[in-house]
Design a protein that fits this description.
By secondary structure, this protein is of the alpha+beta class. It is built from 13 helices and 10 strands. The structure holds nicotinamide-adenine-dinucleotide. Nicotinamide-adenine-dinucleotide (NAD) binds next to strand 1, helix 6, strand 2, helix 7 and helix 8.
């Protein structure tokens, strides 16, 4: 029989996944269950073509192999699966911010949207482009929630080492901020936990398939549509071509405010910024771990 460790190695999913693909068991508790089912099905179709099997016979063929303990075929299946398992089972979201804003965020207990921040005195360094911020606040609305402007939401990316961080790193002349990436920290949260919180607290959320600051983007508000994000673009380090660059900038947006409590980690480029981050949150009741993650920077 195939051991669960083999399944875990390749899929990083719930045990008994192969059985679950056929019976619909095992992954139903995950919010993205329909998606996993869909992706598993695509993997099956791909394998069916590779093995040149009639469609109807594939499930039985694989199940027979599985029951007979034919690891070679099953491993082949499991190796094919991740190609299509492009949506991470446990997606994380990332907000970058100057380290000098951390103390204020931790004390407030929330990250505020740009719209909310516009009504408050400015604390710390502004790293965004003012023209784009203005457009997000007064022009760009979400189709998922037509009365909600992008700028009324707290924005996150689905990857560290974002295009925005690159612009900061290169000290783009359109930015008023010119101190580079060293003082910038990544605030990391778990997408499923955030959506759970938002739904429980009647906060609207959405994700976009590309840059929500551009004149055209699509948005969704159902986790079952997560596979519409171009995950290879999100995860790649080589994004200069189009549409990779636009798709890498897919955003998660949460209406109005984002609880500091949901931040799991503060990632920094080096020890010095790590120390500053640690000092900034030392007095807070919620103190996420501060991690040095140099590969998340340029
Ligand atoms: N920062 C990101 O990771 C991110 C992700 C997706 C999109 N964007 C977009 O990029 C552009 C610029 O980025 P920006 O808005 O992050 O930076 P910004 O400097 O232009 O503006 C707002 C800043 O205030 C900070 N802030 C939020 N709550 C705060 C609090 N309680 N106390 C002190 N400061 C607080 C935010 O983190 C942000 O840095 C915007 O158009 C934005 O929507 C940014």
């Amino acid at each position: 029989m195939v051991t669960s460790s083999i399944r875990f190695t390749y899929l990083n999913l719930a045990p008994d996944f192969v059985g679950a693909v056929y019976s619909g068991r095992g992954y139903r508790d995950l919010p993205q269950a329909p998606l996993i089912g869909k992706q598993a099905l695509i993997s099956l179709c791909y394998l069916q073509q590779k093995l040149n099997l009639p469609k109807a016979g594939l499930k039985k063929y694989l199940m027979d192999k599985y029951l007979a303990g034919d690891n070679t075929t099953i491993i082949k299946f499991l190796k094919v699966c991740p190609i299509f398992m492009s949506v991470p089972v446990d997606p994380k979201i990332y907000h970058i911010v100057h380290v000098d804003k951390l103390a204020s965020i931790a004390t407030d207990g929330f990250l505020w949207s740009d719209a909310k921040l516009a009504k408050r005195p400015v604390t710390g360094t502004v790293i965004g482009m003012n023209t784009i911020k203005a457009r997000r606040m007064s022009e760009l609305r979400l189709k998922s929630h037509p009365d909600l402007f992008v700028g009324q939401c707290v924005p996150f990316y689905f990857c560290p080492r974002s295009v925005m961080l690159f612009v900061i790193h290169r000290k783009n002349s359109e930015l008023s901020y010119q101190d580079g990436q060293e003082p910038i920290v990544h605030l990391v949260a778990d997408l499923n936990a955030v959506v759970k919180w938002a739904n429980a607290n009647q906060r609207r959320w959405a994700f976009t398939l590309s840059n929500a600051g551009s004149s055209y983007f699509e948005d969704r508000c159902d986790l079952a549509n997560l596979d519409e994000i171009d995950w290879s673009a999100v995860q790649t380090k080589l994004w200069s071509d189009s549409p990779t660059k636009e798709n890498k900038q897919a955003e998660f947006l949460l209406e109005q405010q984002f609880p500091w409590q949901l931040i799991e980690e503060v990632a920094v480029i080096n020890q010095l910024t790590g120390q500053l981050a640690g000092q900034a949150i030392a007095g807070a009741s919620h103190r996420p771990t501060v991690q040095i993650r140099t590969p998340w920077y340029y």
